[in-house]
Amino acid sequence: MPGSIKDKVAIVGMGCTKFGELWDKGPTDLIVDAVNEALADAAIEMKDVQAIWAGTLFSGAGGRTVSEALRAQYVPVTRVENACASGHEAVRGAAYAVAAGVYDLCLAVGFEKLKDEGMSGVPGMENRTGTHYQSSMPGVFAIMATRYFSRYGLSPEEGKAMLGKISVKSHHNGSLNPKAHLRREITLEQVLNAPIIAWPLGLFDCCGVSDGGAAAIIVRADMVKSFPNKPVYIKALQICASPTSGRLTSEYDYTHVEEAYRAGMAAYAEAGIKNPRREINLAEVHDCFSITEAVTMEDLQFSPRGRVKEDIEAGTFQLDGELPVQPDGGLKCFGHPIGASGIRMLYEPYLHFQGRAGPRQTKDPKLALAHNMGHEPYAPTVSVCIVGL
């Protein structure tokens, strides 16, 4: 398609720190650890990097946070921020710069040291468009859950069980991931009996607050033979920003995210995908809460509207299912250091494509999707990146 990035750039090296409560590390440590792994993976040195895009929300201002950490002498550094989509934004900047022919090799790095920012609990939110309200992230997504139950005729018990099975899956996958924040398996009974955060969302329906960093080396597609690893090509990279219509309008149904649907449709068109459920082999999506993953399955056309429950119960999205979702544990269990999450979502497919995912390895994957949501829920910016061999 005109203007498409498809197959123009490739990822040839990636790195990711362990996510968690990393009290002994600061932003510099996270940047250095993630980037050093990516450089070693691509068999290059920092002097080979021509430009850097860095994604973070709270853990650094400007480009110097990264240039000082990496001792990158006079290398261009662009610091980007798009809330929870900041990691994808860094990849987008680096990938488009390479695709445009401005650079041959760029670095995208995302990082966040949230535990030092006091980012815990359920802080309130205030809308900045002139309409004021008190809410919290769990509260807002709880509205989505209760509305979904009502619209599609699920009893409270049926709805809670549906969401609980999502969390059980994420914890199972996270238990297999040595870099995940939360590595303990849980039972459906534990999910259903856990303390309520905002009904129907309980403790195990909510992602945690994590520190971490991730990085990617992005090059021109015609350069891939110079690197040791099997290249992973970017097939599509689309972003959709909301006009803040979301929950501020009476028309919104609270059971889908329009931006996710539109970003997905644009990415499928760019990648030439006609049947997402059949053609996508694994997916990493923005599962800040269990209901977010459920609704996203429908927004991305992996499940028909109102019928994700059937696919959850059939095991469709489990590690050994038809379409594995969150094979690394997702935000829920790998963790959610805001600036790093978007790149972490690409790190997992990268490992699978190269047969390096260990006990999480999926069979012969060809295409993977990463979906990231930023800014306010129901009035978000959503990015979708499709990568493949």
* Mean of all residue-level pLDDT scores: 91
The secondary structure category is alpha/beta
**Number of helices, where a helix is a run of at least 4 consecutive DSSP H or I residues:** 12
Task: Sum up the overall morphology in one term.
Answer: globular
Report helical residue fraction: 25-40%
Termini separation: 19 Å
CATH domain fold name of the domain at 9-118 and 209-226? Peroxisomal Thiolase, Chain A, domain 1
Report the count of strand segments: 11
Q: Low-confidence spans: pLDDT under 50, at least 5 residues?
A: none
Please provide the ordered H/E string of secondary-structure elements.
Answer: EHEHEHEHHHEEEEHHEHHHHEE
Report the CATH C-level class of the domain at 9-118 and 209-226: Alpha Beta
Alpha-carbon Rg, integer: 20 Å
Approximate strand percentage: 15-25%
CATH superfamily of the domain at 9-118 and 209-226: Thiolase/Chalcone synthase
Give the spatial strand order of the biggest sheet.
Answer: 3-2-4-7-1-8-11-10-9
Description:
- The chain has helices at residues 27-42, 64-70, 86-99, 137-151, 156-175, 188-193, 258-271, 276-279, 290-299, 308-314, 330-333, 338-353, and strands at 9-16, 51-55, 77-80, 105-113, 196-198, 201-202, 211-220, 232-241, 282-284, 367-374, 381-388.
- The chain is of the alpha/beta class and 389 residues long.
- A hairpin with a 2-residue loop joins strand 5 and strand 6 (201-202).
- Helix 1 (27-42) crosses helix 2 (64-70), helix 3 (86-99) packs across helix 12 and helix 5 crosses helix 9.
- The longest helix is centred in the middle third of the chain and has 20 residues, at 156-175.
- The protein is globular.
